Amino acid sequence: MRKFLTVMLVFTAFILNTHAQTIHLSNSWKFTTGDSSIYKTSTFDDSNWQNIAVGESWEMQGHANYDGFGWYRVHFLLPSAIKQKSFLKDSLMLSLGDVDDGDEVYLNGQPIGINGNGGGDDIKQGRYGRRIYKISVNNPALNWEKENLLAVRVYDSGGAGGITGSDFSIRMIDVTDELKIDTGGDMVLTGSNNFSQTIKIIPLSNKTYRGQLSISFKDPETRRKYAERFVSVQTSKSKPFTFTFKENMPMAKSYALTYTFRESTSGKALTSTIFTPYILTPKVSLQPKVNGASDYGATSGNDFLYKIPATGKQPLTYGATDLPTGLTLDEKTGIITGKTPKDGEYAVKLSVKNELGSAAKTLKIKVGNLIGLTPTLGWNSWNAWGLSVSSEKVMISAKQMADKLSRHGWSYINIDDGWEAETRAANGEIVANEKFPDMKALADSVHALGLKIGIYSSPGPKTCGGYLGSYQHEMQDAQTYAAWGIDYLKYDWCSYGDIAPNNPNLAELKKPYEVMRRELNIAKRDIIYSLCQYGMGDVWKWGASIGANSWRTTGDINDSWQSMSGIGFNQENVVKYAEPGHFNDPDMLVVGKVGWGPNLHNTRLTPDEQYTHISLWSMQAAPLLIGCDMGQLDNFTLNLLTNDEVLAINQDELGLAARQVVKTPTYQIWIKDLSDGTKAIGIFNLSEHYQTVPIDLDKMNIAKDVDCRDVWRQKDIGKLTGVANSNIPPHGVLLLKTVK
Ligand code: GAL
Prior knowledge:
The strands form eleven sheets. Strands 34-33-32-31-30-29-28-37 form an eight-stranded parallel sheet. A six-stranded antiparallel sheet has the order 3-2-4-9-6-7. Strands 38-39-40-45-42-43 form a six-stranded antiparallel sheet, with helices on one face. It is α+β, with helices and mostly antiparallel strands. Strand 38 (659-663) and strand 39 form a beta hairpin. It folds into five domains: 10-173, Jelly Rolls; 177-275, Immunoglobulin-like (Sandwich), CATH 2.60.40; 289-367, Immunoglobulins (Immunoglobulin-like, Sandwich); 378-650, TIM Barrel; 659-739, Golgi alpha-mannosidase II (Immunoglobulin-like), CATH 2.60.40. The chain is built from eleven helices and 45 strands. Helix 6 (474-484) crosses helix 7 and helix 9 crosses helix 11 (644-650). The site of beta-D-galactopyranose has 12 residues, from loops.
């Protein structure tokens, strides 16, 4: 009966869609964990399986922390009308959203593809990402005019798993699918409004295409459309059409820029819209200024390394008065090194001068047993390079950080998974793979720039990427890291799932992290300890007690609004656990060029979504770990990462995370108390449209007559009441701070 009903529902959906050329596959999916080849067959009865929504990970739907195999099945009808009505009558296109991580797809029991374009021929090599499959209309697996069964075997190697993303459909491949508008070229901003970008129209087949490209941009606030221009196009695989678009945008805000290519024979159009970047952070002043947090934790007797973060016209000369014995400053580089003195608090006056003047700031060096007093500001290789990270790539990022970011307080260069060999040395020591020929030399070079270096491992025998983990070698590994000069360890659960019992209890969840903590203490080096186990056992409640400096609160982030906002706006239950030295980690940043592998793309977040991302992470006192290729930092991304007033909110000495004070489906307000007695206020527009957000000062416990500052623009804006009229861009933010 139940099965009959399901089939009826599917038929109804089909009837409603007979005129449409697209068969939507968003509903009526069935799911089970586990693995069996019988699940691919049409005759298998899945009526007892769980109903599941594609688009959300299986963790979100009753399978917390499940890694391994799962199967999805859906029935659909395939009308031949869609074939007849199409222009090219060759093939169907199956869109399966984003798969996390590998997949094998079967149609009526027959295999039609593996891992889309996201990995090799083994399901376990599948990489998280968009899945598109092409099926010839003559493929005997297709049942035209009849019911078809689509069965998808998914393998999740760690973190969130399943069929996620959007666009689950089957439709005929069209001329427009054979062409791609590549908007991945740099978005160059000269000044705050002058925008230029090089785009390409690339055919995916060997045919030559002709047509017209139109370019227009629209102000999403006023809906006004600006200058439309037309360019004629001829493009082939060997000579793809390339065009550089330049425009002086009327105002410093984001415009919807639409590229439309109309192919002349079919009359079909292909469209791609991006949102133009705009700069809010004012130019760095030439006057000298000391930036960065006002306190710094270190352990007595261990190596000390701190670079004074300071901006101003070069050359700068640095000073540090009342430096405790054992520490020395290099006046030219601003790098303080030596051995950390005995326990106590040392107020050191840091100063910087150039031809225009001088500036100073007190840094409290707190020597005791707590390090990482403020959230880590650094870079991590994962969101950029995935397993393709190499020593050279790390060094490129380190140099860029030293040149462009360390003046604002950025200091960690963290190598994620992919540095380890697959087998240990004969004496059991961990060794790096061929991409990291000399780890000690690499660490020395990073330290010479005044920066710190981080590394990654797992308490299991293997990391999530299949490299060596630390299981049963914890002591040796901690010693090796210390000998190399490592300053940060990200410790990722991964294959420890095979060691821990099923459904581990709290003690079992803590155990591997306590083991490594003990070994790090013995290693006598200040190593920030970053837990990565995706929030299991409410880690925020016990991370601090086992000596972690941060703990991941979620599965992996990706560069979509759904992922970033889904994580960032749902941290309200964990924020109260942030305190100096112990922070929630909602995962790394997805700004700039990301890729999780050798091929990078511009983040898919719009510029306003990126302002939201940095603001929200700063408000929540989250570690800020840049996840892009720093060798390709553009002006917009730099503007996101070098706003000293935004960073000061993140680095505030109180170490508190913002509280969510207003939550509605279309906007949220978060407030963070700061050490100078003021408050940071993040007003976030979650809707797709410009929106004025009402501000209830009583609810926010803020005095009516308080003056405010716009933090991104670094401008005083007067009384808060006036702000209610401020129009916040779609998915954007107004970040304020009360003025004393
Ligand atoms: C995941 C982790 C990612 C990355 C990856 C490496 O489990 O969440 O941040 O470290 O492993 O394989």
